[in-house]
Amino acid sequence: MAKVFLALALTGGSVAYAPGAHAAAGPYERGPAPTESSIEAARGPFATAQTSVSSLSVSGFGGGTIYYPTDTSQGTFGAIAISPGYTATWSTLSWLGPRLASQGFVVFGINTNTLYDQPDSRGRQLLAALDYLVRSSSSTVRSRIDSTRLAVAGHSMGGGGTLEAANARPSLQAAIPIAPWNLTKIWSGVRVPTMIIGGQADAIAPVATHSQPFYTSIPSSTEKAYMELTAASHFFPQTSNTTMAKYMISWMKRFIDDDTRYDQFLCPAPRSIAISEYRDTCPLT
């Protein structure tokens, strides 16, 4: 997906150390050329910091935690809002925040208005969180974000909400529903590049009645992928998972940053004992 605006310069200070991140050739490429080891690492090339957002200071969602690169030399970054699942809080997914941010993204791990919010509500809350990041005068990271390069992700009902958000806002650059649950099975309106990650042994949102029909219903004209993790239960995202993170990074880099250096990890389809099934629309366009 070609973008037409060059990234703007940032301001800010470094508060943590990470290996040096090098300028890249493309207008949205961030960091050095990727390798298998670099996208499997627990931390990427960018030092990160984080800040908490109180539910009392926002509208439309329940606050959360923002993770962001402290590098101010490479321009703005894409941003990702991530929702937890039913009865869960962001703390159940918090390992993802610094892991994704250290690869060159602003990541907003949100809490929902209530623990029991359904997927349609979680979808609206994901979009409200993105709007807060790029529009609110209270957003401390607004100057670090390219408002044209935004994405969503979520677990369980948060994954169902991810589909809702992608369907409602086709200008998003990427979506990653993780073990998604939603009573709606048809997503023929989704135009956002979408990677669905399911668990082979998921008994709460079985892939046969959730992830797989969701994937199938998204038009083939939309870039999409379906990755099923071997023997994984519904709760696989709640502990550090290298396979999941590796391909989330690759998908987000490819579609948020238009970084074709990551094509090699997505096409041809990856093969691993950790992946029980993989479908996609390769080749990437």
UniProtKB/TrEMBL annotation:
Instruction: Please state every residue range assigned to the domain named PET hydrolase/cutinase-like.
Output: 23-283
Q: Which UniProt keywords apply?
A: Disulfide bond, Hydrolase, Periplasm, Secreted, Serine esterase, Signal
Catalytically driven reaction(s): (ethylene terephthalate)(n) + H2O = (ethylene terephthalate)(n-1) + 4-[(2-hydroxyethoxy)carbonyl]benzoate + H(+); cutin + H2O = cutin monomers; a butanoate ester + H2O = an aliphatic alcohol + butanoate + H(+)
Give the GO molecular function terms: hydrolase activity
The answer, when asked if Hydrolase is one of the entry's keywords, is yes
- Class in the EC hierarchy, top level: hydrolase
Asked if Cell membrane is a keyword of the record, the answer is no
Q: What is the annotated signal peptide range for this record? A: 1-23
Which EC numbers characterise this protein's activity in its record? 3.1.1.101, 3.1.1.74
Subcellular location per the Swiss-Prot or TrEMBL entry:
Periplasm; Secreted
PANTHER family membership: DIENELACTONE HYDROLASE DOMAIN-CONTAINING PROTEIN-RELATED, POLYKETIDE TRANSFERASE AF380
- Describe the family membership recorded for this protein in Swiss-Prot or TrEMBL: Belongs to the AB hydrolase superfamily.
Output this protein's name.
Answer: Poly(ethylene terephthalate) hydrolase
What species is given as this protein's source?
Answer: Sphaerisporangium dianthi
